[in-house]
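#struct-pred

JT: dropping the chains for the assembly here, can someone run the whole complex?
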Amino acid sequence: MIKYTLRRILLMIPVIIGITFLVHFILMISPGDPAQMIVGPEATLEDIEMKRHELGLDQPQVVQYLKYMWNALHGDFGTSWFQSFNVMTEFSHRLPYTLRLGFLAIIWAVALGIPLGVISAVRHNTIVDYALTVLSLILVSAPAFWIGMMYQVFFSLNLRWLPASGASTWRHYILPALSLGGGVFATNCRTTRTWLLDTLRSDFVRTARAKGNKEVTVVFKHALRNSLLPIITQIGVNFSIIMGGSVITETVYAFPGIGSYLINAVKAKDVPIVMASILVVAVIVGITNLVVDLMYAVVDPRVQLGGK
Amino acid sequence: MRKGREKKMSNTASKKISTSNRKGQMKQVWFRFRKNKLAMIGLVVITILILACLSASLYIPYEKVYTQSIRDAFIPPFSEGHIFGTDQFGRDLFARIMYGGRISLFAGLVTIGIAFVMGIILGGSAGFFGGKTDTIIMRFCDILMSVPGILLSMTIVAALGQGLGKMLIAMSVSLIPRQARTVRAAVLTLRGQEFVEAARCYGTRNSTIIFRHIIPNVMGPLIIGVMSGIGGQILQIASLGFLGIGIAPPTPEWGTIISENQSNILFYPYLGLVPGLFIMVAVLSLNFIGDGLRDALDPKQKN
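RK: done, full complex below.
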């Protein structure tokens, strides 16, 4: 298990190098001289040249990339080009917000999605099942930012229950978490339902019933445990979706996390910020996927990690 | 009628399966698809929506998309001449949505089309040739998949600049790896089967084996992947539009329409509600069709 974990972590390194290099490359070949943009339209040629030298833009691209990664390894993500503050400090302020929001979203989506999926499967083809199916279909098919806005209109403006934007108290987290987790909740609910229905029809469940077990035991001990594997896979995918979705949700709710920071940086082509965000997100997603794979072995003893 | 069909079925069954023609298979898929009510509703709704958007110029002049008049700002829905009302510049929301739908639906189809073709090429060669080709292509896919798709698309759009063509590239790039993986997995299982081996023994060229024997057999999972992806693609395009990096504002696109009305939505909710409902209905219909196709193409895997 430890050997497997280590190998997976080592395998993550080339992927992270690959994605950061790719992003760096794309941002650098794009038209427009960043130095020119930073110093403004009235600057002299010397000013531009000085700025370019200061940012290291006069060096070959590969050198720039290597320098950036070397510094990043030492915890220095550089300075924002346009706002001249340290990216690392800004990240340490903002990352906790995004992580808290992401965890809240995933927790409610899993804690409600899986049980409701179970109910949907057990009460197959009843009103409860149909209602849950319709709800999850709506949550999957409507754009997340739109749902977020509708929550704002309904819960903040009409009912005046919850604040519409910001992140100063715990109440500010409710609406963002609700809209960020919506899609994940729906997929969890649907996957659980599909797989559990499939398992409930299998022979060993019939045997478990024939032995005279209570229905609760049959569903939870026999059927659910055997359909957990695809559900856990789903949670791994969810995490990636949540990280991507946080950009949108944070924009809707003016939430001071990484997502809203990144989108502004992307618009301004502030390379240090974009690079740092991609790096952080890639590491988080990579680690989550690893944790999910490790959980396989815990849930299903048949899964042998590290084997050929 | 019914009797005829039964007779036909038994006819095809009596023939050897290997000789059953594609036309019969398509017919069977259509037959199973037609029995799925939700999928049929989805098909009807999306067809109406596409036709309505394409023929928009027949019932509403294109100028109305851009005509501004402050006097007509915020006219509520169901008013005369403005079924869905007007926005802050007095532009007709109905016209903007119908013409915007052209871009949203078209962009969804194109990106998925690009991903479909690239997926076949990349995933197909990875699975078929194996070895180094496989490793290189799959590692590249891993790299592209290491960050959420929307972040990758965002970065590419930021680098290339705004515009429909650039956005289409950015959107497909984040979609290709997933598609390539599906194709590769399907090809891997097919590669070892007897009919491919037999074709090889005949001395068939690689290209013939791929196009005549392998691709027709991976179409099932591919079409399922594509159909269930279009809805997501439309959502992503809308999201990019909302974030302000998709289609540039005066041009209507469903996400952009919501985005440009964001500051007024709290007071005039219909400005967000209506375009959002259009996105939802389109995506919902496409998802229904995708589910229906999955059941029709792969009857073993029933939910």
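JT: nice. The domain at 29-64+84-301 of chain B is CATH 1.10.3720.10 (MetI-like fold). DSSP finds twelve helices and no strands in chain B.
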